[in-house]
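Final report, closing paragraph on structural work. Over the funding period we assembled a curated collection of sequence-structure pairs, and we close with a single example.
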Amino acid sequence: MNEISHEPVLQQFPDAEWDEAAGAVIVPLGQARTMAEWLLGHGLDYCSNVTGVDYLEREVKEKITNDAGEVETVTRTEPARIDVVYHLYSMQNKTGPLVLKQRTSRDNAEAESLTPVWRSCDLQEREVFDLFGVNFKGHPDQRRILMWDEFEGHPMRKDYTEPFDYEWEPTPHNEILEKHQKGKVIV
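Its predicted structure, as stored:
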């Protein structure tokens, strides 16, 4: 497949950013649905993958050239966030991928659902909701898909800690069953 240029997207949406390291277009807040509809109209007819990436707050060192022309290393703090990443293709033109990212804070994580644009986002956005806790505005059927309804938390978040006991696990197995047999799990 031939690669898709991100330049037309950045021209159409001047508030969008290009993340060179990730090779992704970062969607401006509140414009994901509009951008997705524009991309669909320009031949990107298939979303193959939707996933979440969790970033805890971290310090990043980067080299800059100061006013005196000297190169120095500065440290800045990047806030915690969750990125929802979409891989888009044109099946008709046999081109792709174009990677889009919706960024959201970790607290009350929220993104726009692109399921109304690409039906293939449906189950994958539910998975991101279930495992990362991202609420998708406009999703037609947002509910857990992998974890059981009573499960607390979102297990793919980097700060998730599994409970000592899995009293809510429907059928204990493997390690949990061994812990039960050794008496290490509170029932």
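Helices lie at 7-12, 32-41, 122-132, 174-182. The longest strand covers residues 46-55. We thank the funder for supporting this effort.
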